[in-house]
Amino acid sequence: MRDGKAYRLAMQLVEQAASIMQAPRLIPISFAHIDACFYTGQSHLDFVRFLLEHSAKLSVPTWTNNSVASPDDGGLRPEYSDPEMVRGAHKLMTLYAELGCKPTWTCAPYQLAGGPRFGDHIAVGESNAVAFYNSVVGARTNKYGDYLDVACAITGLAPFAGLHTDESRRADIHFLCAGIPDEWKRQDIFFHLLGHVIGRKAGRRIPVISSLPKETGRDQLKALCAAGAASGGIELLHVTGVTPEAPALESVFKTGEKIEITAEHLQAAHRELSTVRDGPLDAVALGTPHFSLSEFSELIKLLAGRKVKTAAYISTSRGIREMLKAKGWLKTLQDAGITIPVDVCTYYSPKVQALKGRVMTNAAKWAYYAPGMLGVEVCFGSLKECVESAVRGEVWRDSSLWLQT
Amino acid sequence: MTVLHPGIAQGPVLLLDEPLSFWGAFDPRHGTIIDIHHPQKGAGLKGKILMMLESRGSGSAPGGLAEAIRLGTAPAGIILVQPDINLAIGAAVAETLYGKSCPVLAVAAPDFLELSKAAYLHISHDGTVGPSLDDA
User: Of residues B58, B116, B124, B132, which has the active-site annotation?
Assistant: First the structure.
């Protein structure tokens, strides 16, 4: 309904954004991942109701980010904990599904099949997904805030500006990791810490990182992107020889600041992400961004058939949970005492009741936000340290890691 | 001067010492700054001409502003230096949904400095800013 009120509002918003960004024209997009489905107040419901009442139609495949609370999250956020937020969140999920969105409810949509490909222009709102799609997939998006994300999905258009253009995708700060031993670069914790450091130092600049192993994988790049987006607002990063736009340093970088990453940088990040010293532990929270199948596989190996003593949550998407079920892993995890919430994350309010006191996580993004949002103490550690600590009921440190202080 | 979202407004000036995010750092139910790190924590924005050099980025900021406009706790108008898409979009959506306007402008830094000395300001539909008409 191109003559309808909903389409007109969507076009007005896209053109308003284009004018502010000084974009010379609008370009077609092929995909959207929206964040306006994350409930923050009545206005979110009113917006999508307005679109539905005026026969809005989505022009491109549109996937949904996490919800605040899900009817399917295993009682994580029961309605009585905050009736307005929880009811609003559930209603918002129904309405966006009605609008025609694919109900993925995940902050890691790039872990599901069928998403955008290299060179595609797309519109994405969730910060870690913006960084991952731009950096690892090589699709092109700016960080589209609430309502504008949906407006792009309805019109199928985005302003041709910022990271949609070739010239805005070049790096202007270089992080060199040549001085870090290769063994460290195989640890999951290294990528969370490196992302935190890079975000802090780069701010809104585009980093290129060199001297990381060629075999650096998607889980590691996910950690890098999420941590950098949380600590500094990174929307695109390049890793030479790893990410698709940076076969070599010269492909993306001419001049700019150069920083040698040292062990001290990583140790400082580790201290910044921990608010409490080692000792007894109340809970472990993993899956920020949503855990992948390969991360679950690694965790099950580390668990080795043991049960956890603390509360333990691993957030993921309903898509990945289906794969866990098919492999028989969901039962393995549940039998071990682990809760697998889907559609949501655990770091924001309304509070998850069992997440209190001292919580351990391997996710820099969780560690960055949870102390402020939940009032918990955070211990930061590797995946192995989180699993061992959950099993023992107190913080266990891996003596083979370099972070011992 | 750039009109990011047009409207007419007037009110007492509130000049922020640091950028504010309209999500997480601001409570739309009460119209107050809740970020413990913000130097003006506790300040009410309702009915003010809010002046800040830039907004702090959050993808959820448009909803925070739209919700405040819906509830009547929002600033009367916003004057920035750095153009901000999120606040413009939040104001535009709220105007469509609720028929209430909150103009958002970006002005040059020297003009911002000059305007911030006023106690009251008036914003016209074309983006002209001056002393409140009540005073004139």
Answer: B58
Partner A, chain B 29-48, Cβ-Cβ below 8 Å: 36
Identify the structural domains of chain A with CATH numbers, from first to last. 5-165 (3.30.499), 170-270 (no CATH), 274-392 (3.30.499.10)
Tokens representing A171 are: 């790096």
Does residue A363 surpass a pLDDT of 70? yes
Long-range contacts of A325-334 (CB under 8 A, 24+ apart): A329/A296, A329/A297, A329/A300, A332/A300, A332/A303, A333/A296, A333/A300
Chain B partners of A126 at a C-beta cutoff of 8 Å? 59
B87 touches chain A (CB under 8 A): no
B129 touches chain A (CB under 8 A): no
* Cβ pair B66:A43 closer than 8 A: yes
The pLDDT of A10-21, averaged and rounded, is: 97
Q: Count Cβ atoms below 10 Å from residue A139 Cβ, excluding itself.
A: 25
Q: Is B101 a catalytic residue?
A: no
Chain A window 117-176: which residues touch B at a Cβ cutoff of 8 Å?
A: 125-127, 143-149
| Interface membership of A275 toward B (CB under 8 Å) | no
User: What's A17's DSSP letter?
Assistant: H
Q: Identify how many contiguous H helices and E strands chain B contains and give both numbers.
A: 3, 9
Cβ-based neighbours of B119, under 8 Å, separated by 6 or more: B12, B13
Superfamily of domain B2-130 in CATH is Phosphohistidine domain (3.50.30.10)
Q: In what helix (H) or strand (E) does residue A360 lie, and over which residues does it extend?
A: strand A358-361
Report domain extents, chain B: 2-130
Looking at the DSSP bridge assignments, the partners of residue B122 are: B10, B130
- The confidence band for A369, taking pLDDT boundaries of 50, 70 and 90, is confident
Nearest to B12 by CA among B125, B136, B122: B122
pLDDT, average across residues A186-213: 95
Test A147 with B62 for CB contact under 8 angstroms.
yes
Distance, CA of B2 to CA of B105 (rounded, Å) = 6
Q: Give me the residues paired with residue A174 across strands.
A: A208, A258
Identify which of B106, B13, B95, B103 has the alpha carbon closest to the alpha carbon of residue B55. B106
Determine which helix (DSSP H) or strand (DSSP E) holds B78, and give its type and residue range. Answer: strand B77-80
**pLDDT, position A159:** 98
Of A17, A126, A127, the CB nearest to B89: A17
Segment A213-262, tens digit of pLDDT: 999 999 999 999 999 998 888 999 999 999 999 999 999 999 999 999 99
How far away is chain A from the Cα of B55, in angstroms, using its nearest Cα? 13
Q: Which residues of B touch A21 (CB under 8 A)?
A: 85
The pTM of the full predicted model, rounded to 2 decimals, is: 0.95
